[in-house]
């Protein structure tokens, strides 16, 4: 269906360009292609990665200036200027990205906006290099195999040829491991780290790719206009790219094309309204954003789905992933963490041996989740030592710990809305499997293992709580971890479901996994766990066999009068 729509769209553009477009119309179409190319990169960094990079306009401008300066001042040809126009923004993006990519979203947006401001100032104030406010004229035409590509249809053809190529590259990236990893990162950055994804490296890669696309677009813009001026570094360029991505549909290459064609043509279509056109144009944009929050391509996709039904998803054959290799489990000594003045975890020591199930209990707020967060790398300990698989991993990042064989679940099962069950589970293998198809085959195995293989073709949206928990557990199990940390996995389950979960956990431990269970439900936990630790105000107040917990006076005292009760 998607392919038919793409083909129809491409054909319509071709017919318009060949038979109907005036020279001016061809120029607008060419510029639309240039913006589509810039928006492809933005779809990757913002649409998929969720990082509102306001540097896309700056990278566009840098690409434009590289072609402008090298072309008009040094007479270099397209074959040299075009790759350099992509390379220079990339070289700028890497150090800038390293410096700003770890900032929180709005600070990141501001920092990237600053880049454009600085570059604009440089462009205006370095006239010997850039031509100052007037810019540089006389940028040569693109010369291909000795033929100077004239403006009009040939230039439009060249630009749209590159749009087709760029769109294909972008489409492959978005549908492969990178795109899926970025989507996971956007939807749930915390979980992404615990699934082994290197958040920093992924963001930097997306930022770099966005710069490559923007630089290419900037170069083509200059060849189309044959001049370069500080205008290419001004904010309207960035606003146009952002609008194109949002109106067209976040994260979709087809959305970038549709958005660019519409954004560039709407002012032309409304021009007869003279000064009133801006009002209508603004209202049309506002309506699109309000009525189609996932953009026009999202709207069209949903409409097509309703009309023609969703095509059945071809499911991969289940394949068993290799288990993590680890003879030793996890050993923790003197773990401590405070938040401000509050000592959340205070000198906790524990050992998770392969093949064992250990329970971690304690009243509400006693530090159980913080222990799991410390062990899985979401918090850094203030003190203590953690050894995993025989190696010291104290303070290691979540993705490193995941690679070392640790998996965890979260108290509130987080599955990204709008994602398929199979994709959500496969996300946990993206960091280790060679490609997305292998990750999906492994995910299929995990879903079968959890007894929910029939959910593979479904969406995560609207799944009942018990099934969501299973899918989330499948996401941990699919990693075949050596150590599995589960934060209240039985919450909200019926007695029958709890019994099934208990059987599964026994099976996993029987295969050599070391399991840590944080639980309030003693009826579930005590028959399952060999050993139980009880925390109170961050300290271990009981560490012994499960059947001794109920008789222990300190444990009973800790639970008395607290929100959590020893059921
Ligand atoms: N990021 C944080 N910043 C400040 N305080 C925190 C943070 N995380 C946890 N705390 C505090 O640390 C203490 C321990 O919290 P934690 O969530 O680990 O307890 P818990 O035993 O898991 O509780 P529950 O059973 O309710 O899940 C609480 O007082 C909590 O408010």
UniProtKB/TrEMBL annotation:
Name of the protein described by the UniProt record: ABC transporter ATP-binding protein
SMART domains in the record: AAA
Keywords: ATP-binding, Cell membrane, Membrane, Nucleotide-binding, Plasmid, Transmembrane, Transmembrane helix
Gene Ontology terms, MF aspect: ATP binding; ATP hydrolysis activity; branched-chain amino acid transmembrane transporter activity
Residues annotated as signal peptide: none
GO CC terms of this entry: plasma membrane
Segments passing through the bilayer: 35-68, 80-101, 107-124, 155-174, 204-223, 235-264, 276-293
């Amino acid at each position: 269906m998607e392919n038919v729509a793409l083909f129809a769209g491409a054909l319509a553009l071709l017919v318009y360009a060949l038979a109907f477009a005036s020279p001016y119309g061809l120029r607008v179409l060419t510029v639309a292609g240039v913006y589509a190319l810039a928006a492809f990169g933005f779809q990757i960094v913002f649409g998929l990665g969720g990082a509102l990079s306001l540097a896309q306009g700056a990278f566009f401008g840098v690409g434009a200036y590289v072609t402008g300066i090298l072309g008009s001042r040094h007479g270099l040809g397209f074959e040299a200027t075009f790759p350099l126009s992509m390379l220079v923004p990339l070289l700028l993006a890497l150090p800038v990205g390293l410096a700003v990519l770890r900032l929180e979203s709005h600070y990141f947006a501001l920092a990237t906006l600053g880049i454009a401001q600085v570059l604009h100032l440089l462009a205006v104030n370095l006239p010997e290099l850039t031509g100052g406010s007037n810019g540089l004229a006389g940028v040569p035409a693109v010369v291909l195999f000795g033929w100077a590509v004239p403006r009009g249809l040939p230039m439009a053809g060249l630009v749209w040829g590159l749009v087709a190529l760029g769109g294909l590259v972008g489409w492959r990236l978005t549908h492969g491991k990178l795109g899926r990893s970025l989507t996971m990162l956007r939807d749930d950055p915390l979980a992404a780290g615990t699934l082994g994804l290197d958040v920093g490296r992924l963001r930097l890669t997306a930022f770099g790719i966005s710069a490559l696309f923007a630089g290419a677009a900037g170069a083509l813009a200059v060849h189309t206009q044959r001049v370069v001026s500080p205008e290419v570094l001004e904010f309207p360029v960035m606003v146009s790219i952002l609008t194109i991505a949002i109106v067209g549909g976040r994260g979709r290459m087809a959305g970038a094309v549709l958005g660019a064609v519409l954004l560039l043509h709407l002012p032309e279509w409304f021009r007869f309204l003279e000064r009133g056109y801006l009002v209508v144009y603004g209202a049309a944009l506002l309506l699109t954003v309000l009525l189609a929050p996932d953009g026009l391509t999202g709207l069209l996709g949903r409409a097509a789905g309703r009309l023609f039904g969703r095509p059945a998803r071809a499911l991969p054959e289940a394949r068993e992933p290799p288990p993590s290799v680890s003879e030793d489990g996890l050993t923790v000594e003197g773990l401590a963490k405070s938040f401000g003045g509050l000592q959340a975890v205070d000198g906790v020591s524990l050992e998770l041996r392969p093949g064992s199930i250990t329970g971690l209990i304690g009243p509400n707020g006693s530090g159980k989740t913080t222990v799991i967060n410390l062990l899985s790398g979401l918090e850094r300990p203030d003190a203590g030592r953690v050894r995993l698989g025989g190696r010291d991993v104290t303070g290691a990042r979540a993705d490193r710990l995941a690679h070392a064989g640790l998996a965890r679940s979260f108290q509130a099962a987080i599955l990204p809305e709008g994602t398929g069950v199979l994709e959500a589970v496969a996300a946990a293998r993206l960091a280790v499997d060679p490609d997305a198809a292998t990750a999906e085959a492994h995910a299929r195995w995990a879903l079968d293992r959890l007894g929910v293989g029939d959910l593979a073709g479904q969406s995560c949206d609207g799944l009942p709580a018990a099934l969501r928990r299973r899918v989330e557990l499948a996401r941990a199990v699919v990693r075949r971890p050596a150590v599995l940390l589960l934060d209240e996995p039985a919450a909200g389950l019926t007695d029958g479901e709890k019994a099934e979960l208990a059987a599964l956990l026994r099976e996993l431990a029987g295969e050599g996994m070391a399991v840590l269970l944080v639980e309030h439900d003693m009826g579930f936990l005590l028959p399952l766990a060999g050993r139980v630790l009880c925390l109170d105000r961050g300290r271990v107040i009981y560490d012994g066999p499960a059947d001794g917990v109920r008789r222990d006076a300190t444990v009973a005292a800790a639970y008395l009068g607290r929100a959590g009760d020893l059921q």
